[in-house]
Amino acid sequence: MVAFRLAVASPGRPHAWLPFWSGLCAGAACITSLLIITIPIVLFLWLVRNCEANRRKHAAIQFLAGMAVPCLLIVPLVVRAFPQFVFDLLILQLRHRTLDGHWTTHDAWRTHIHTVTDWFGTGQGLLLVLLPLVGLGYLAGHQPFDATKRSEFYLCGWLAGSLCAWVSVPNPTFPWYYMPAVPWAGVLAVLGLFAIHAHVLRGRLLVALLLVTCVVFSYDTAKWFSMFLHDPSEHQWREVEAISQEIRAAGCGSLYASDMRVYFASRCPPQPGMESYAASWLSSLSQAKADSLHIVRQDTINRKIQAGDFSLLVLNSYDPRLDQPALLGNYSELRRFEGHVLLVSKHR
Questions:
Q1: Which residue in 82, 128, 217, 340 has a CA-CA distance of 20 to 30 Å to 263?
Q2: What is the pLDDT of residues 335-348, one digit of tens each?
Q3: Where are the beta strands (DSSP E) in 41-92?
Q4: Are 194 and 249 members of one domain?
Q5: Range of lowest pLDDT (9-23, 67-81, 151-165, 216-230)
Q6: Cα(240)–Cα(341) distance, integer angstroms
Q7: pTM of the shown model
Q8: Is-contact 74 89, C-beta < 8 A?
Q9: 159 with 256, same domain?
Q10: Count of the separate structural domains present in the chain
Q11: 46 near 155, Cβ under 8 Å?
Q12: Domain coverage including residue 171
């Protein structure tokens, strides 16, 4: 959002380095998450189109220079581990995301379509889709503002639309992937309300519409808050914290946890090559390829468990390995939780 505000302030201010700072903010956001990679692209194109003709080249250079600054932070990582960088960034997402999991292709696509269309299942989501469309239609048909202001609203539309289109590509995708588009959809939703006020409803009817909108948003907020309080995953975090306290008391040692949250809460790093839980389950990844990428495959992890190589194990309570005495012959149960089991090596 800061990059957006700096970009829209750039036209008409030739002596300010606003494009540079906009690019800096957009680049910093991008290296934290590829989900918002469309933001700098759209902002760059908007700057080139809307800046004064004699400033377009300078604005473009400043924006790209600003983007380059945060990208310099990952250069040492790319230089030291270029194959791993390419695998995590591209190959894992493009080749292995759908099929190398617990879903069949049919289940993955069904879940994907449900997630993409799930916005229409709540009042908030429906309003954040319909009101921006009303606002953009009003903007195109009536041109209520000057060209500069209209271009800023259109920029909000391009940002929200490109983000939603981009995060709909990964299969599976998840509802929280769409959250970065909400601020710009909110701007256009206000424009939609203004359009309804200008041409449809006035006076008390407009007040009634605003009250209905507030009630819908408040109701959905209360519903989601109630679901959050009663969400089993919220209680799992408390359980993960209890497990982490046990681990910290015993010492990290050579810990293996099937729940990656345990590493975060216990402040214990994963074992070398086991940093990516998703990559370790890739059945289509050959042993030679896994070794070259410094990834320990799941079959290798199971052999290490059977050999008693880990001092501590944290497995989900439904993990089928708990029913295999041969696999866990070198471990004894330290404590059983509702959703997890903590085991300690007999040779520790």
A1: 82
A2: 888 888 888 887 76
A3: none
A4: no
A5: 216-230
A6: 11
A7: 0.77
A8: no
A9: no
A10: 3
A11: yes
A12: 104-230
